């Protein structure tokens, strides 16, 4: 009855999963028996090693599709590829994201457009492609990785905050549309996780705020989180596995904060 960790026979597509949070969620899905399609940027040899290692370690099929998250046709092709190669699609995780830190009056136009495309629009295009497959199956789980910044704001992150707030609204709408079709859509809202994207933010914030890297880490990054500790990818995997399991069937249209108390303030 409580087989939260049994995903045998299921198929998951996880965007932005060659490192960081996405790779942790892909690993969790594979360890629980789901075949996985990885997606993301990076050195081709490194990605292949990651794919091969995960497949060998878990004994499930692990594929890779290099869809550019700014290209709607490539995103649709990624979903179609998963369905064709693996026969179904049970779990879609919209995780791909980038960041740029800058005051709004100096924010580069191209950075704004790219962040909105990757952090928000890609979730729409992937979901649009996945929903008909899930409808035909009568079941599906869509998990959008938003952020604490989908619920609250911080200075110098106008595009990221706008995109992540958009992800929360998109999550609610999709959940309502599909509520009677066995398909759920929820968002996970992590606080700061020590991933490559956060490491870059530390440097960007130091530059923007004219602070040392150590001061940024203590007073800006972890200053937001009452625990003064980074969220771990294992902790995010826990809520993810609940949401994609049968136990999570009535969790729908909700945003789950995993942020050390940040948004409780």
Automatic annotation (TrEMBL):
It holds the Pfam family adh_short. InterPro entries: 3-OHbutyrate_DH, NAD(P)-bd_dom_sf, Sc_DH/Rdtase_CS, SDR, SDR_fam. It comes from the Bacteria. Belongs to the short-chain dehydrogenases/reductases (SDR) family. This is 3-hydroxybutyrate dehydrogenase. It comes from Brevundimonas terrae.
């Amino acid at each position: 009855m409580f087989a939260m960790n049994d995903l045998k026979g299921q198929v998951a597509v996880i965007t932005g999963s060659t490192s960081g949070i996405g790779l942790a969620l892909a690993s969790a899905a594979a360890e629980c028996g789901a075949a996985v399609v990885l997606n993301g940027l990076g050195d081709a040899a490194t990605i292949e090693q990651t794919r091969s290692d995960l497949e060998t370690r878990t004994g499930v099929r692990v594929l890779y599709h290099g869809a550019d998250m700014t290209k709607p046709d490539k995103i649709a092709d990624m979903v179609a590829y998963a369905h064709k190669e693996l026969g179904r699609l049970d779990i879609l995780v919209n995780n791909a994201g980038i960041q740029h830190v800058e005051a709004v009056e100096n924010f580069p136009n191209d950075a704004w457009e790219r962040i909105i495309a990757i952090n928000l629009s890609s979730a729409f295009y992937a979901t649009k492609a996945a929903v008909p497959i899930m409808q035909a199956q009568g079941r599906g789980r869509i998990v959008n990785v938003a952020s604490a910044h989908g619920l609250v704001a911080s200075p110098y992150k106008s595009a990221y905050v706008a995109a992540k707030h958009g992800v929360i609204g998109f999550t609610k709408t999709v959940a309502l549309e599909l509520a009677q079709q066995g398909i759920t859509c929820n968002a996970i809202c992590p606080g700061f996780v020590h991933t490559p994207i956060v490491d870059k933010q530390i440097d960007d914030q130091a530059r923007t705020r004219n602070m040392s890297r150590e001061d940024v880490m203590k007073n800006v990054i972890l200053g937001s989180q009452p625990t003064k500790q980074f969220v771990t990818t294992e902790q995010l995997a826990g809520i993810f596995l609940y949401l994609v399991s049968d136990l999570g069937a009535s969790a729908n249209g909700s945003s789950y904060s995993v942020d050390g108390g940040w948004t409780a303030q």
